[in-house]
Every structure is written in structure tokens, then in C-alpha cells.
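Field log, afternoon session.

UNIT: design team B
ACTIVITY: writing a sequence onto a fixed backbone
BACKBONE:
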């Protein structure tokens, strides 16, 4: 995210939405940590790091579509 200058706060919003879904993949079956772990990591990165970010209209549009579902 930081390399591509995507603000990590948007990822937190995405992971919170994914967390609210009815199905959950057990962490041991996943190649990524459960959503709570991701949210904690991103919050830590936001607090500990300085980074630049820019707007990505296409990414924002995709997220807006996701929120409507």
C-alpha cells in the first residue's frame, strides 16, 4: 500500500466489511491473517510510519461499489 501510495485507512474499512461477512475462513487455512490481525497491523503502520498517499479514483469507485453490496 505504501509503495503504491494507497492510504492504509481504506484497507481498514475494507477489512472491517470483510469481517462482517457471514463466512470466515479459519486462519490456519488462509495464506493471510484473519481480518482482526490485518486491522491491528495496519493501525500500527499508520501510527509508526510516515508515508505519502494519493487518490486513486478507480480504487475509490470499486470500494463504493463494494459498500453497496
Amino acid at each position: 500500500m505504501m509503495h503504491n501510495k494507497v492510504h492504509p485507512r481504506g484497507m481498514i474499512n475494507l477489512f472491517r466489511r470483510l469481517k462482517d461477512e457471514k463466512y470466515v475462513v479459519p486462519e490456519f487455512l488462509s495464506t493471510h491473517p484473519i481480518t482482526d490481525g490485518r486491522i491491528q497491523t495496519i493501525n500500527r503502520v499508520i501510527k509508526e510510519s510516515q508515508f505519502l498517499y494519493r487518490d486513486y479514483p478507480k480504487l475509490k469507485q470499486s470500494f463504493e461499489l463494494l459498500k453497496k453490496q
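LOG NOTE: The chain has three helices and no strands.
NEXT ACTIVITY: expression trials, pending approval
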